[in-house]
């Protein structure tokens, strides 16, 4: 009497899929109960919802599709580095989804008189460039409203110290669009910490909050890297962006040039995020400037 190992494996796969389906059903049921509590004014349910989202198991179909898309885009597949790395990635994805129910985001939709259920959350998957510098560009100067002038801010390392709640100032500058070779520094940096990271992946929130009428949803939701960043104390006396005039002019002009090109492409003022690595400009995202 022999064993058909293929049939045994198939039966086991079916049992696993059924167990996953039942588990997801219980999680979905719990979420529905918590959302009902939230609708009745129990705001403590927000934290419970976030924790419940983190209990979700990944459907095999989603894992397969995600792996196919990432590999076809030339990105590393976390599962190739072991099950633990995939679990890190899946947890990061769930944290982005869960951020839909953070307090600031939820109450901002109420203030705008929007049904929170109208808000949809997608997750962008991007490979992290271990940046030398990160920048934000406004292609119309937000202080003066001057559309002939680009305003930008630059920090050492990754952009989280620029867009997140980190103390200190970034290097700020303006540049006329008709004279990109002559950027004018407005303020020098004082941020004490820069962030750097190994080759990794970041999962970025991409909600329709920026498209809902009367609601500015940018910056309310989380972006989560798979790996923790390394915090490095910045020594500005050794930074060529500050002590090498030619290097500074080249980098700032390149940033301004990227801003002008993207604005011309989309034919409207843009709010742009990007990084510099080995003197090259990489644009991470752009959106219409509000």
Summarize the structure in words.
β4 and β5 form a beta hairpin. This protein is 39% helix and 23% strand. The chain is globular, with a radius of gyration of 23 Å. It folds into two domains: 6-125, no CATH class; 133-200 and 221-288, ATP-grasp fold, B domain (D-amino Acid Aminotransferase, Chain A, domain 1, 2-Layer Sandwich), CATH 3.30.470.20. The longest helix has 35 residues, at 5-39. The strands form three sheets. A six-stranded antiparallel beta sheet has the order 5-4-3-2-10-11. Strands 1-7-8 form a three-stranded antiparallel beta sheet, covered by helices on one side. A two-stranded antiparallel sheet has the order 6-9. It has 290 residues and is of the alpha+beta class. α1 runs antiparallel to α2 (45-53) and α2 runs antiparallel to α4. It has eight helices and eleven strands. This is alpha-glucan, water dikinase. Belongs to the PEP-utilizing enzyme family. Pfam families: PPDK_N. Its cofactor is Mg(2+). Its main location: plastid.
């Amino acid at each position: 009497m022999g064993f058909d190992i293929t049939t045994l494996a198939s039966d086991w796969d079916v049992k696993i899929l059924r167990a996953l389906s039942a588990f997801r059903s219980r999680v979905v049921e719990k979420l529905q109960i918590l959302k009902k509590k939230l609708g009745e004014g129990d705001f403590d349910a927000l934290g419970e919802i976030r924790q419940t989202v983190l209990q979700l198991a990944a459907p095999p179909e989603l894992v397969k599709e995600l792996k196919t898309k990432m590999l076809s885009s030339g990105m590393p597949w976390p599962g190739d580095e072991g099950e633990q790395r995939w679990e890190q990635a899946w947890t990061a994805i769930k944290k982005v989804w869960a951020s839909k129910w953070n307090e600031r985001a939820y109450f901002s939709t109420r203030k705008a008189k929007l049904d929170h259920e109208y808000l949809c959350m997608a997750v962008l998957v991007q490979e992290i460039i271990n940046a030398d510098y990160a920048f934000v560009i406004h292609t119309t100067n937000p202080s003066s409203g001057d559309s002939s002038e680009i305003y930008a801010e630059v920090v050492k390392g990754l952009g989280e110290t620029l867009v997140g709640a980190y103390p200190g100032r970034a290097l700020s500058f303006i540049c006329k669009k008709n004279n990109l070779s002559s950027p004018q520094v407005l303020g020098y940096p004082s941020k004490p910490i820069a962030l750097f990271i190994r080759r990794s992946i970041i999962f970025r929130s991409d909600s329709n909050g920026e498209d809902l009428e009367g609601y500015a949803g940018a910056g309310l939701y989380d972006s989560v890297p798979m790996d923790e960043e390394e915090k490095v104390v910045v020594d500005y006396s050794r930074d060529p962006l500050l002590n090498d005039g030619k290097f500074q002019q080249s980098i700032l002009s390149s940033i301004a040039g990227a801003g002008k090109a993207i604005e011309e492409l989309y034919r409207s003022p843009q709010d742009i995020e990007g990084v510099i690595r080995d003197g090259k400009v990489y644009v991470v995202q752009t959106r219409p400037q509000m």
